[in-house]
UniProtKB/TrEMBL annotation:
Signal peptide: none annotated. Residues 3-84 form the GST N-terminal domain. InterPro entries: Glutathione-S-Trfase_C_sf (IPR036282), Glutathione_S-Trfase_N (IPR004045), Thioredoxin-like_sf (IPR036249). This is Glutathione S-transferase. It comes from Pseudohalocynthiibacter aestuariivivens. It holds the Pfam family GST_N_2. It comes from the Bacteria.
Amino acid sequence: MTYDLAIGDRAYSSWSLRGWLLFENFSLPYRLHIGRLYSDDLPNLLRDFAPSRTVPAIKLQDGTVVTDTLAMAEELASRHPEAGIWPKDPKARAIARRLAAEMHSSFGALREACPMNLRVAYSSFEPSEEVEADLERIALIWDTARAELGVDGPWLCGAYSAADVFFAPVAARVAGYGLRVSESAQAYVDAHLADPAFRRWRAMGLVDGPDQPFYKRDFTTCDWPGPRPVAAHSVALGTPENETCPYSGKPSTHLMEVSGRTFGFCNAFCRDKTVADPEAWPGFMEIYQS
């Protein structure tokens, strides 16, 4: 079945990021519905996802709505056990659930002081003692999980799981506010920043809709610390190498130039999200490398 998924602004809605990653990184089919934060868009959208009052929310084929990312993870895992949303190993699964639950209910100081904003990175933010305590606790539970399971790779419980989904917004906050964390914690943050799905979400967030004034902070800005995108820019004229959009298959009408080559897309959003980070998009890279 194909699910209906409601989200908010990609640049700012950390809970929406969680919900989207549950579909994107576990290859589950969905139709996306977006409501702008701090506008009538969101309550209007959520009328179709009653009784939800927040995003993300999903609607099942029979019309049942599931709200809250923890409930969404459990419901999707029960319906798609082959997807690997939770680890198969019982010990790893228990630890992953422990991690996700603590993230879900804790770290209020970090959330309040550092709201997610994927459009900017700061270098002058000074965390409070409460934020430092949250960061220390987060690093501890990450290290403890990996030690308990003997994990060698980049993710907390072996293969990428819902536990990693729940901490993706934490990685975004550490990156965006220049937070100082341990070497092992930074390596885990870097894994999220390099995750292709996270890069696609951020690329879309950079170009999708206006800035939200609520998230503006008067700190010194700096470059985003994740992988540096290949330089690209939109152009008005040119002959694209591809006749159809790599995402929709529709005729190319909007143009982008990268490495002296011109490519076409079916609309401004398809073009602009690719300009933001060309390497994040497998559909584009397939034609770029061909």
